[in-house]
Design brief:
576 residues; alpha/beta; 15 helices; 20 strands; 12% strand; globular
Amino acid sequence: MKVLTSIKERLCSKKVLIVLDNVNDPLILKSLVGNQDWFGRGSRIIVTTRDKRLLASHGVINIYEARGFSDEEAFDFLRHYSLKHELSINDFMELSSEVLDYAQGLPLALEVLGSFLFSMTREEWRNQLNKLKCTPNLKIQEVLAISYDGLDDKEKNIFLDIACFFEWEDKDYVIEILDGCGFFSHSGIRALLDKSLITIYSNKLMMHDLIKEMGREIVRRQSLEEPGERSRLWFHEDIYDALKRNTASEKIEGIFLNLSHLKETLDFTAQAFSRMSKLRLLKVYNSEDTSGNFKDTSNKEKCRVNFSKDFKLCYDCLRFLYLHGYSLKSLPNDFNPKNLVELSMPYSHIQQLWKGIKVLEKLKFIDLNNSKYLIETPDFSGVTNLRRLVLEGCVSLRKVDSSLGNLKNFSFLNLKNCKMLKSLPSSTCDLKSLETLILSGCSKFKEFPENFGSLEMLMELYADEIGLTVLPSFFSFLRNLKVLSFSGCKGPPSTFWVLPSRILNPIGPILQPLSGLCSLVQLKLSDCNLTDESNLSSLGSLSSLQWLDLRRNGFVTLPSTISLLSNLEVLALENC
């Protein structure tokens, strides 16, 4: 305390410049630069640190985040090293391009690589750059690892999971998965942001390539010779080696296998996974499955993993299970991962997911897209916290189990291109949290449940090219609906947009059921056989409408009420 008093007394009337470099302890700030009144008017205190939280906790207002070099700045930086060595212009340009691509603006990497690469021969620096692709530079790694070393154990786990598995994934989605692992990921991700170990862009988790490389190198060094002794596996050759030789150990917590990199079929057997008692995350995926073209599924269905009939996992720690092309007709009878958060099995051969009731209270996401043999959904009674269900492209699906209506937190249902589905259970109307419903491409779907208008939280409804021929009157009760798409719902000419026959004294084909949609922002009615008799004037009551798509219809004139749509930004009328 005497020291603190002495600093304040000696400097309180003096104009000073103080620089505190690489501060990692808040006590240092408290002891050396406690408050602004410690120093004279006009003083400047500069603090550099790897942890933004440290500055915030001390009340620092003006924070500048150091940025990496631009390509032009990095190029000029490297030119300094080239002046000391005799390099041809072509060699300098080629080497600089390689170094810039590797360093991505990081001054440390530019300095380390520039200091020794430019003194090498052409063959030597080319060889060294190839080496860097599999063996990171030790000096760069040691400096970058300082921030990692300052994390607690749970923050380290979050960092390694992102570096190995979750870069470019949606932040909120990753939080759901990692919270399920008990990592307190809201605060953990905040810590990684404050230490500049990750960034977030458009809600996606991003990481500098050298920082990601540092994280993966930490995992690799857990066992240099035996991949099965590491905590996380992502490189297909390491995974193939561990499973083929049955050397996968209890240390493995996560496996992400990209099928597009496999050249030979890999067997998934109970024996290969028997020792993985700590497995939290398992993803078998195909990175080529990104086109969204549901007509061309031949390549997506090919799977170079053979799931043996006795295939099973240690379920106790499992939080995330993603199996592309799962070849069995159902999950094992003893499938009971009580801590599972997500179950995804796209392009699977599943006919029935499970029999009876499975109590999976932590399960929030189920995705069975393009599982073309699935006939009906399972009983959801034990999956009480399910939020999202994706059954897109399940072309044999005929029935959605009525237990779906019991899910209080359920918000998203995707049934796109379920071509055999004719209706939804009446219990669907009990889904008070449902926000998005996708029925587009369900060509045999002809009738909504009678109380569909009670879905008070529904905000988006996509029902393009369904088999509906009348617009139900209860649509007017969907007061929170923001997006409604019925493109391609033709029916016979001039007959689609009519009220049910039980409505008294209908006055020809009308759009009246839409008039109560006061929150509607986007309406798509293209290719719906609308004519001048379809009472288009009722569209004028949609006061919030910003986007109106009426393309490829048969009307000749627009009603004057369209001018009442004061918020309208886009009006599409091609081929009318």
